[in-house]
Amino acid sequence: MRVTPKRIFIFTGVLLAVAGLVALRILTASGAFATARRQDIAGCTSFALPGSAADLEMDRSSGIVYLSVLDRRALDGNALVTGTILKLDLNDPGAQALPATTGDPPGFRPAGLSLWAHPNGPRRLFVVNHAVDADGAEGRSVEVFEEEEDDHLFHYRKTVLDPAFVNPDDVAAVGPDQFYLTNHGGAGNVLTRAVETVIRPGWSDVLYYDGTKSSVAVSGRSFAGGVTVSADGLRLYLAEAGAKQLLIFDRDTETGSLYWSSLIEVAGAPDKLDIGEDGALWAAVEPNTWARERSLSSTTPAPTVILKFAAPVNGFSKAQTIYSNAGGDFSGGSAAVAHKNQLIIGSVTEKRLLRCPLPNPPG
């Protein structure tokens, strides 16, 4: 076939049109045109951290919140950047964040957290770790820490590795050695990651680790993120960021199997989740994940939205917006926990916590 200027022009036009459609698809799916309406909480205060606290885990028996702290804006190509776990005593208005561990594994880069309160033994803290070695190679594991006596200080116990930990994001402990883990994505290289971002084929899953090996508990999801289990262990809540919804599963406490219950649609990509004292579900939601990704490498603000779903949480539950701003006051909120009359908000980029009073004891 003879190549003519006309054919070249048509071919170029088609390529540009396809590229434009792909770009529009990415921008629309990531909420690039979305923002958040301002809804403040009077009297919020904040204090500095050595990094951003992208996940929070509340120990309601003691009033201590644990923080997954890492300077995420400094990560790009820097193998020396590591993080740690800090703790904050919410019983003390003047408390500062203190170390929660006696030492961390080499190259420690914490992500999701989960606390297991053992009824007849020491409590354990499970931490998703994207550790990096001296050559910059990233690992994928769950680190298990065990409390020393009753001083809320944890020492490193073991590392859990499994080939199925492809892109771990969050963890929900349900036993001394058992947990659920979300794989945020299933892509294994640059090309498949691009396909997953554009087409969203549902390569993300939830694994159940029984203490020896993992198995797939939920499959076919689009960017599974935050995961948590109710206090009685009978329900599991999953944030499916790519589909902008919260999934609710009934749980078999003997086998770890999950059974579909219902879903709740939200206006944005849900991130980390927390269950309050009365069973209410708290969710940090990202209306604009495009801005959130840009904020990791720049000072571009990203919206912060915190929602509450009163108990009983089901597919008919209505969201109550507790806190919302376009990112100017507090950018990239990724996790929130409520305890008595306080709300604590962490961020994927802000090197500080937001601590807000609540008018009534929350769920």
What is the β-strand count? 24
Helix content: 10-25%
Kindly name the structural category.
mainly beta
Averaged pLDDT: 86
Number of domains: 1
CATH class, please?
Mainly Beta
Largest sheet: 4 strands, antiparallel
What would you note in describing this structure?
- There is one protein chain.
- The protein is mainly β.
- It has one domain (about 30-355): TolB, C-terminal domain (Neuraminidase, 6 Propeller).
- About 10% of the residues lie in helices and about 40% in strands.
- The chain contains three helices and 24 strands.
- A four-stranded antiparallel beta sheet has the order 1-24-23-22, with no helix packed on it. Strands 2-3-4-5 form a four-stranded antiparallel beta sheet, with no helix packed on it.
- A hairpin with a 4-residue loop joins β23 and β24 (about 350-355).
- The protein is globular and about 80 Å long.
- The model is unreliable at about 20-25 (pLDDT under 50).
Keywords, separated by commas or semicolons:
4-stranded antiparallel sheet; 3 helices; single chain; 12% helix; Neuraminidase; globular; mainly beta; 24 strands; 363 residues
Annotate the secondary structure layout.
Blueprint: H1 5-29, E1 45-48, E2 52-59, E3 64-70, E4 84-89, E5 98-99, E6 110-116, E7 124-129, E8 141-147, E9 154-160, E10 168-173, E11 179-183, H2 190-199, E12 204-209, E13 214-221, E14 224-229, E15 235-240, E16 245-251, E17 258-265, E18 269-275, E19 281-286, H3 289-295, E20 304-309, E21 319-325, E22 333-339, E23 342-347, E24 352-357
Antiparallel strand pairs: 1-24, 2-3, 3-4, 4-5, 6-7, 7-8, 8-9, 10-11, 11-12, 12-13, 14-15, 15-16, 16-17, 18-19, 19-20, 20-21, 22-23, 23-24
